[in-house]
Design a protein that fits this description.
With 505 residues, this protein is mainly α. It is 75% helix and 2% strand. It contains 26 helices and 2 strands. The radius of gyration is 23 Å and the shape is globular. The two termini are 39 Å apart.
Length: 505
């Protein structure tokens, strides 16, 4: 039994490649499209102006700002609609099937955006950004779900962070391509926008050779044989009965529940604090200011007094730090735990936002303040990369069981992308209105999220899904009794309405 316990943590070649291909084919695109329009912003805005003038229309500065804000923010708006599609797709097509289907929302807009200049239409870019946003909305929820269900529990945190690592690699890749001598110029930006389809093509070709989630096949499809075969391939040995028993136990505990819809998720008492937790974590993650930095990095560094020719290299350097810290997070999450990394991350972000505000306000009187501003942005990125960026999706996978996980990811994804959309749309106006003090809003949000995590979120590393459910039972005022291979959830003082709050999606 001791040897079997050691073998549980084995990272097989099949599991490693399934992780890399799904993360590169889907998560990479999320990050790439976050940053792809930052560096060529001026050239693209000039294209918008030229197209409008060719149509005998006058573009005022305020209208151009609105069009550009729409171009930026329509991407997370598409992400919101993609999140709404998560539960129906993963329940009917499976996790892997949804990722394959999702490539439509990458390849089609890649072609559209790539030919936008030739066709002389900025509207195509906006529509393409919306469609590729749908792709990101699906992938940001489905990839962590898929990998979380493939991974053994002692590797679940590390593998769950890999999608976030590839998001940061995507951001860095877009920043490198955005250097003016490469593609961040008047001739290269359509190519930059079109390159997002390449990872989708690779995933479309290779992912079919990898297994579907064994949990999906056993618990939702009742396919015991294929679930066992997939698990044997993923673990690298034949004896998988211990893990199959764990999944059957979860299946038995959820048989009465069925698949929870999003509406019923909000009414089900035993999931109340789990639901509140994913809402607070995703709001905190996105409203903390991270995407203001990625969407508008050049304008932020320009405000900080960085020389125009140096901005692109500072931006790339920031992206490189982001990737490095995400790699660090992969290796420390199982040792440090989820909660500690979240607390450290949000704490660092809060302090960095406050100091950045001070640095921006004093930069005219002190010539060395631009360096402090750059340091604050880098420190902020470090803090966000080790906790707020990667951990919420890991925790969402862990604190919900099979019947409620798809609906939970829909809620988490919707909050994530609506918050992202709000920052992308509002920040240019916020920056003009509040100037140097706009980052104080982000600091207060980081502080509020820090306090919530400190008080509410339990540590989940190394626990089974059923064990994690028991961690929340006391706060939800429910009792989870586990006897042998049977598991029943008894809700204290449950009303008749709550007893009927379970439905098939």
């Amino acid at each position: 039994m001791e040897n079997l316990g050691e073998r549980k943590g084995k990272l097989t070649l099949l599991l490693a490649f399934a992780t890399l291909i799904s993360a590169f084919g889907s998560s990479f695109q999320y990050g790439y499209n976050v940053a792809v329009i930052n560096s060529p912003a001026r050239d693209m805005q000039m294209f918008y102006t030229n197209v409008s003038e060719s149509r005998n229309s006058t573009v005022t500065e305020s209208l151009l700002t609105l069009l550009w804000s729409l171009t930026v923010s329509v991407y997370p708006l598409g992400g919101f609609f993609g999140s709404l599609m998560v539960a129906p797709l993963v329940n009917n097509l499976g996790r892997k099937g949804t990722l394959l289907f999702n490539n439509i929302f990458s390849i089609v807009p890649a072609i559209m955006m790539g030919v936008s200049e030739v066709l002389g239409s900025f509207e195509i870019i906006i529509v393409g950004r919306f469609l590729v946003g749908i792709c990101a909305g699906l992938s940001s929820n489905v990839v962590p779900m898929y990998l979380g269900e493939l991974a053994p529990r002692n590797l679940r945190g590390a593998i769950g962070i890999v999608p976030q690592l590839f998001i940061t690699v995507g951001i860095l890749t877009a920043q490198v391509f955005g250097i003016r001598n490469i593609l961040g110029n008047a001739e290269g930006w359509p190519i930059m926008l079109g390159l997002t389809g390449i990872p989708a093509l690779i995933e479309l070709l290779l992912l079919p050779f990898f297994p579907e989630s064994p949990r999906y096949m056993l618990i939702q499809r009742g396919d015991d044989n294929n679930a066992r075969t997939a698990l044997q391939r993923l673990r690298g040995w034949k004896d998988v009965e211990e893990e199959m028993t764990e999944m059957r136990l979860e299946e038995q505990s959820e048989r009465a529940e069925g698949q929870l819809s999003v509406f019923k998720l909000f009414t089900f008492r035993s999931l109340r604090w789990q639901l509140l937790s994913i809402i607070f974590m995703n709001m905190g993650q996105q409203l903390s200011g991270v995407n203001a930095i990625y969407y508008y990095a050049d304008s932020i560094f320009s405000s900080a007094g960085v020389k125009e020719n140096d901005i692109q290299y500072v931006t790339v350097g920031t992206g490189a730090v982001n990737v490095f810290m995400s790699i660090v997070a992969v290796f420390i999450v199982e040792a440090a735990g989820r909660k500690l990394l979240l607390l450290i991350g949000f704490g660092i972000c809060c302090v960095a936002c406050v100091v950045l505000t001070v640095a921006l306000s004093l930069q005219e009187s002190l010539h060395w303040m631009p360096y402090v501003s750059i340091a604050c942005v880098i420190i902020y990125v470090i803090g966000h990369a080790i906790g707020p960026s990667p951990i919420p999706t890991v925790i969402t996978t862990e604190i919900f069981r099979q019947s409620s996980r798809p609906a939970a990811f829909m809620v988490a994804g919707s909050v994530h992308w609506l918050s992202n959309f709000t920052v992308g749309l509002v920040f240019p106006f916020l920056e003009k209105g509040l100037g140097d003090y706009s980052f104080l809003i982000f600091a207060s949000i980081c502080l509020a999220t820090f306090i919530y995590i400190w008080v509410v979120i339990p540590e989940t590393k190394g626990s089974t899904f059923l064990e994690i459910s028991k961690l929340f039972a006391k706060r939800n005022k429910v009792e989870i009794a586990m006897e042998g291979e049977d598991c029943n959830m008894q809700e204290a003082a449950m009303t008749s309405f709550e007893k009927n709050a379970i439905t098939t999606f």
